[in-house]
């Protein structure tokens, strides 16, 4: 495909991987903060192309995976209310709550529908004036502008039967939470290009300076990611900690100012609980007071107890980059995409699902890394 195949070119990938091997002299640990990037890394076997001194660590970059159990429970309880149509992106339906998923609620008769945009939910509200239409808004900065536009449009049209259950999270505070942890072993970050398309990357400069870590804004194709790794290793080897942009074809330093303005008009920053991690200050978005009548939590007054993860699931450690999916004793046995114990086994961007689908078991990965290292 034009403009896509060039970022998957085999010869270019091999050339950049060889350059990374050439300049690497010390162990480095690099975290990608995007589930889409994790998927490409695992599917393409990029870790096996790198020298054994460079380790790619998967971070909390899957918004489906970090949506807390209590929020899933609220979505399920809302969907089970009479006259409610609950709309969501497809991945959210199978994410386990404390006792049920949205798919379970649908099987019990709840009207749960998959949509591809919050504007689809708006249209449902227009077409069903006697029903309450609730959109489950999950995502990072990438999806915030479309959700903000849906809220703004609903307010403009005075759609009284539309509301939003908001569970938005933000990337930079998650990166800081990882770096502030006493267990942190991350020395550099591949930043998520699609989030930076909206926000730009000005905010990353203070993080880089405060913690002394290089950050490279990176795309999602194999060539993008390897170029990002090369840029990071070059900084690390030189003792630098700067912010650089590999994804120049899509990201500008200031980001999309119109999208930022719409998000700021509709949402405000709030503390947010991350599944498997806990509360991260100022890491989420909620509706501003002028739009609180469109807040589904307030509209339906749902008061639910916070719920805990499965005691067997180590998703929190996986999301913080402290464990690999195959370190979990339930991985691929009691936890599979059909019977998930945690959200990272559900989402297409979840590390556990990626490892499962592409055959990344501990012995296989160790053998591939050793074989690749021995070949160079």
Q: Distance between the terminal alpha carbons, to the nearest Å?
A: 32 Å
> How many beta-strand segments?
11
CATH fold title of the largest domain? Rossmann fold
Specify the helix fraction band. Answer: 40-55%
In the CATH scheme, the class of the largest domain would be: Alpha Beta
Instruction: Based on the coordinates given, report the CATH architecture of the largest domain.
Output: 3-Layer(aba) Sandwich
What would CATH call the homologous superfamily of the largest domain? HypD, alpha/beta domain 2
Largest sheet: 6 strands, mixed
Strand content: 15-25%
Low-confidence stretches: 365-376
Can you write the helix and strand succession as a string? HEHHEHHEHEHEHEHEHHEHEHEEHHHH
Sequence of strands across the biggest β-sheet? 4-3-5-6-11-10
Average pLDDT value? 91
Shape: globular
Q: How many individual domains?
A: 3
In DSSP terms (H or I, runs of 4 or more residues), the helix count works out at 17
Q: Structural class per helix/strand content? A: alpha/beta
Radius of gyration: 21 Å
Pfam families: HypD
GO molecular function, one term: 4 iron, 4 sulfur cluster binding
GO biological process, one term: protein maturation
Protein name: Hydrogenase maturation protein HypD
């Amino acid at each position: 495909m034009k403009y896509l195949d060039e970022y998957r070119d085999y010869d270019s990938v091999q050339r950049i991987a060889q350059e990374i091997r050439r300049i690497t002299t010390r162990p480095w640990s690099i975290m990608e903060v995007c589930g889409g990037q994790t998927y490409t890394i695992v599917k393409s076997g990029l870790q096996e192309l790198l020298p054994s001194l460079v380790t790619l660590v998967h971070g909390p970059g899957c918004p489906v995976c970090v949506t807390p159990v209590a929020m899933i429970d609220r979505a399920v309880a809302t969907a089970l209310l009479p006259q409610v149509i609950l709309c969501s992106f497809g991945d959210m339906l199978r994410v386990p709550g404390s006792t049920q998923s949205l798919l379970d609620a649908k099987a019990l008769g709840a009207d749960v529908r998959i949509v591809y945009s919050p504007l689809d939910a708006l249209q449902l509200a227009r077409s069903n004036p006697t029903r309450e239409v609730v959109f489950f808004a999950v995502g990072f900065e990438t999806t915030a502008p479309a959700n903000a536009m849906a809220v703004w449009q609903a307010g403009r049209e005075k759609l009284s039967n539309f509301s939003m259950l908001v569970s938005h999270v933000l990337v930079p505070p998650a990166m800081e939470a990882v770096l502030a942890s006493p267990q942190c072993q991350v020395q550099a970050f591949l930043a998520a290009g699609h989030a930076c398309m909206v926000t730009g990357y000005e905010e990353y400069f203070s993080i880089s300076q405060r913690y002394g870590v290089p950050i490279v804004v990176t795309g999602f194709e194999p060539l993008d990611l390897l170029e990002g790794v090369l840029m990071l290793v070059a900084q690390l080897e030189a003792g630098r900690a700067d912010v650089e942009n590999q994804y120049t074809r899509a990201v500008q330093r200031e980001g999309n100012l119109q999208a930022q303005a719409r998000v700021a008009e509709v949402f405000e920053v709030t503390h947010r609980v991350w599944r498997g991690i806990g509360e991260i200050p100022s890491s989420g978005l909620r509706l501003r007071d002028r739009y609180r009548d469109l807040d589904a939590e307030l509209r339906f007054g749902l008061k639910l107890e916070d719920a805990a993860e499965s005691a067997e699931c180590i998703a929190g450690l996986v999301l913080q980059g402290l464990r690999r999916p195959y370190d979990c004793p339930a991985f691929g046995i009691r936890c599979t995409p059909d019977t998930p114990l945690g959200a990272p086994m559900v989402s297409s961007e979840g590390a556990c699902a990626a490892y499962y689908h592409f055959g990344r078991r501990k012995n296989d990965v160790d053998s591939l890394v050793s074989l690749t290292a021995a070949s160079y």
